[in-house]
Amino acid sequence: MNCLVKTLTALLPAIVVFPLSGCASRPDYTLAPSADAERVTVAVTLPPETEVLPLDVLYRSETCRKEVYDNTSASHVTTVRGVNPRLVALGQADSAGRREAKIAINGGGRCGWRLSAIRVDIQLKGDIPLAAGRHIIPTSYVFGFDDEAYGSGEGSGRKREAHGDLMLETELFPMITYHRDHEVNLKLFGGDPDYEKWSRHYRLYGSRQITINPLLHLTKTVTITPPNPAPGDLIATYSDGSIGKVRDIYPDYNKLLLMK
Hints:
Layout: H1 2-8, E1 39-45, E2 50-52, E3 55-69, E4 77-88, E5 98-104, E6 106-108, E7 113-124, E8 135-137, E9 139-144, E10 160-163, E11 166-168, E12 171-178, E13 184-189, E14 201-205, E15 209-212, E16 215-216, E17 222-225, E18 235-237, E19 243-245, H2 253-259
């Protein structure tokens, strides 16, 4: 199992993987893009109360494949493209607060790694007053460069298609959620991603520039509380003091947009 642990750390949890046949059969995870390799630029400019985490970059390889469980075959084994996850820090901010990273589309190396997905996580900083005593949860953007499923962008929504360069200016509101176990979460809310217009999960075609400039309405907080007594609907309390029932797990985004 040591080989499996070393080679599969942080890979997609939904895939059940068989141990490789010894350490000698491990793929070469080295990236070796050429100097003139085509790249996609991810640029983020954030309000001062927020921060961006290192980019979650995923490469896949057709050459270095791996065995996975398959209940539809007699052997219960099939092969899928190998995966190579990376964390990539954005560069230092310029005078406008813009930070960027350039990601090679063809990662090269012995396995011929190709860019499959990029996830961008932003969140409120832990040292602002609103974050005191609360568990901060990042808000994710997921960008796919092939048709492979990507399972690490929970809450980013169903995949939507986009062609060419992308400029995203999501309007974000702090959302405080109280749980029955007394945990309190704090997340930036940008709409119910089950609706395509608010989804933050993209399948990109020909995109070489991704720009994220979110707009933060820090004083327009919405609070979600469980029903008391249970069972019942969650309750949303908005910054103007109004109260409403919550559809599924998300408050009324249109209401928040009108309040800004």
